[in-house]
Model the fold of this input.
Amino acid sequence: MDEFSFIRSIQPKFYRQSSVIKGISDDAAVIRPVDGDFVTAVDTMVEGVHFTRETMEPEHIGWRVLAANLSDLAAMGSTPRFYMVSITVPRCWSEKELQSVYRGMKQLADKYAVDLIGGDTVAGKELSLTVTVIGSVAKDKARYRSHAQSGDLLFVTGTLGDSRGGLEYLLSGQAACSKAHDYLIRRHRTPEPRITTASSLSSLQRIALNDVSDGIASEANEIAEASQVEVIINHEAVPYSEALSTCYPDHYQAWMFSGGEDFELLGTVPEKDWPTVEKTAESAGVRVTKIGYVQNMRSPSPCVWLDKDGRRERLAASGYTHLKEEGE
Amino acid sequence: MDEFSFIRSIQPKFYRQSSVIKGISDDAAVIRPVDGDFVTAVDTMVEGVHFTRETMEPEHIGWRVLAANLSDLAAMGSTPRFYMVSITVPRCWSEKELQSVYRGMKQLADKYAVDLIGGDTVAGKELSLTVTVIGSVAKDKARYRSHAQSGDLLFVTGTLGDSRGGLEYLLSGQAACSKAHDYLIRRHRTPEPRITTASSLSSLQRIALNDVSDGIASEANEIAEASQVEVIINHEAVPYSEALSTCYPDHYQAWMFSGGEDFELLGTVPEKDWPTVEKTAESAGVRVTKIGYVQNMRSPSPCVWLDKDGRRERLAASGYTHLKEEGE
Done:
């Protein structure tokens, strides 16, 4: 593969963001700040660890790695602007397949007018994609996981565990034979980061946000620790899709908490702001569900509690409850 | 290895850049723009491709990957501010060795007050480091390789080919037994990006810059193509170290042009600005040498010519002259 012709083939013909002063074509990209702060994150996905060719087409790999990154920006309440892609390519990947990976990223990027402004292409033994994203947010309006306070409502967008359901189905090697399976597979391969919902909540004075990459058990514990609070989750309220509970009746409850990679948003807001959250999500066509609340600010032992069947148990970051871990 | 304890171990205790609003601890970092533009680049280095454990200690690997990135920022005339590191780690690397890799980066970063503000840590089969750097530059003062014009002088910082000399010596497996070898090895393992020199030239209205990552034959061709000019290099003027010519009398002339990874700067300036370049480099303690000039703006066939022994030959990006390629 000729690196230069490959770079030319994936280079954008134009940039949508007027703040791109210099895109791909020099030692680095140049961007002009507008009002507000910049938000930036980087994520790597490696073949055999984060995805396999058995469960993903090249386009899905591209979509998904960018989705994971854009989800981080959404969790900061920021609007994505630019991305850079560093790809490590083993000999067994063809130029056509690589172009499909970039096309997958571009399909998602185009939805939000995000521009590819740089990257690197190197040889290696395993396919690996590192994506750097840069977004913008109004000054002092970045949303931290440390912003939860006593009395806040806990909410989550979408439904949970679907991505894991889709993955398990793909790993089973069966052909998708129902709409439910198609839905779960789509949720796994081409997740939708909740960018519009998050950035549309910019009018709220305070909101804590985390994106669901490792499962809400983990994300809720991160909020609890960062905010020094206790988070209570009402098991009955946690949203799951009918597709998931139908296809995986024995597993969906565990996957709702620890399935991960749904790239939904878990957040907390003051009770008075809940109608705004509901209205904003509705406008974006995104389901949003109240699943608990926050208590005990400045808690000496920040943690997550799960209310289920009239009992309260500690929910570990791994998704297991404290009591279950001790053998109950 | 516990990912969270590792991240804690490499997390900065404080940030030097006052524009860091949120460093490592949330879904993304938040930075506040000051005056001017942002410049950003990303580079990946893979074990077995860009470095080996035989020729590099973990600290050198860290230093070198960050140096390559900071060199890209220098070539844009920008001052580095932040970096993010995504690392893919095979099981055979210990946590202690990884910390050494980060220490190597930190040693270089500390010299220029560059802050580590984010990253990712994932498992994989081969060690791979992807570094994203962000710098700042005065508005419209980024230095492009497309800025060369007829009549400009061509110059280069430092000496060329040393990194290749160091690499060859390390690959030979011999113990370093002379100051010359020590020097070449140091130039290979811990190159100094020309940040101070580049950013100190901000008073100049126009300067074209490229950093020497693939050798000046390649970089000069990039300037020629991007600026649509012809670049003439005077072979006799190209600077090399005594260490290199002494240790590798049969190779140094080729390596000067195509050795690569010296991370020096190749640039062009109007003749009237040459004294400023000389003075600036002197203040930074960096050697700078006039090695040619630019002619034929809007050339229909932009290229690089090498003047040697009274003859003019075309210099290909690979470092070979056109005539030599045809068998001379």
Notes: The radius of gyration of chain A is 20 Å.
